[in-house]
Structure to design on (260 residues):
């Protein structure tokens, strides 16, 4: 029934956002396999549905981060400068030349599993005398561009990729999380607009599942606010370990799905 699907989507969106918002991940990357496997959202409609989730859920965490003064930063602007054009390119690729879901899952697994384990090991290892240098502005923008393209193709929040890389290179989670979530929100708006324009050209299957996307997004809106509220109460080490564990767990999950 539709009401039970809506309640399930709301609960899933809330639980995912509570866990992921403190480390700058929107949760869409974890919602994607749930939409495909549990709710049966067809491809490529799952991409704009995930973008819809980000648009609805994003303001919850962003409102909380704005109150703490962490939202407006140079890092936020650099990430947006890369992800905004990237998501437009990704949306076009998604409709006209997208690789199969198995290839995507293997790509995510190959990237996030070692990235998550690397971040966990770096966190647990004793601090070295010379900490790693933060990435240059050009590197940050280039990485954001690549992540924006991936986000436009698959409708995932770039925080799941940007977060582990930037934190692993020495940036504090408290600085990375608001910037990554703000970038995800703005690029999701752009991606949703791009898919709307593409649907007007006659491209088939690019209309989101509005009911499910809004239900999951409403849960994410509540969960994102709660998760952002929890972040200042969690130590930096715990946040880094959480981010690394989320990335590694997602990589393992996608690898299992791809090999089935």
């Amino acid at each position: 029934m539709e009401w039970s699907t809506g309640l399930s989507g709301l609960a899933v969106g809330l639980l995912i956002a509570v866990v992921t918002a403190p480390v700058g991940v929107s949760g869409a990357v974890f919602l994607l396999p749930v939409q495909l496997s549990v709710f049966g959202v067809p491809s490529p409609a799952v991409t704009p549905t995930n973008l819809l989730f980000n648009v609805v859920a994003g303001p919850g965490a962003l409102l909380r981060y704005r109150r703490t003064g962490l939202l407006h930063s140079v890092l936020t602007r650099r990430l947006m400068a890369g992800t905004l054009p990237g998501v437009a390119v990704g949306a076009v690729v998604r409709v006209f030349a997208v690789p199969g879901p198995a290839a995507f899952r293997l790509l995510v697994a190959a990237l996030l599993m070692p990235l998550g384990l690397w971040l966990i090991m770096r966190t647990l290892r004793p601090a070295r005398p010379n900490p790693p240098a933060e990435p240059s502005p050009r590197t940050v923008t280039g990485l954001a561009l690549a992540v924006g393209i991936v986000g436009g193709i698959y409708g995932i929040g770039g925080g799941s990729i940007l977060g582990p890389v930037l934190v692993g290179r020495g940036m504090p989670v408290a600085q990375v999380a608001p910037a990554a979530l703000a970038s995800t929100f703005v690029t999701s708006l752009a991606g949703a607009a791009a898919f709307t324009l593409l649907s007007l050209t006659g491209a088939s299957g690019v209309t989101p599942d509005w009911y499910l996307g809004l239900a999951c997004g409403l849960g994410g809106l509540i969960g994102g606010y709660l998760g952002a509220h929890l972040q200042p109460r969690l130590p930096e080490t715990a946040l880094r370990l959480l981010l690394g564990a989320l990335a590694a767990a997602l990589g393992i999950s996608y690898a299992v799905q791809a090999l089935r």
User: Anything to note?
Assistant: The chain is about 75% helix and 0% strand.
